[in-house]
Amino acid sequence: ALIPTGKAVDGKIARLNREACTKCKACLRIMCPALIEGPDGYPVVDAVTCNGCGLCVNVCRFDALKVSGEEEA
Fold it and tell me: What structural domains does the chain harbor?
């Protein structure tokens, strides 16, 4: 079993672009312990728990989540 350590991959964590987010909740459905739904419906990334794996980035169809430190395409 994988045990979260709270250590980011190369110091990276996920960041949300609220302007691109549609609140579709696809990222929340992956049940990542670092993502919760905020009171306004937007996902909130827990910087302590996020390990920068990028799974939430991969499920977001709207490019609203990015891992900090990634090059812009």
Answer: 9-67 (3.30.70.20)
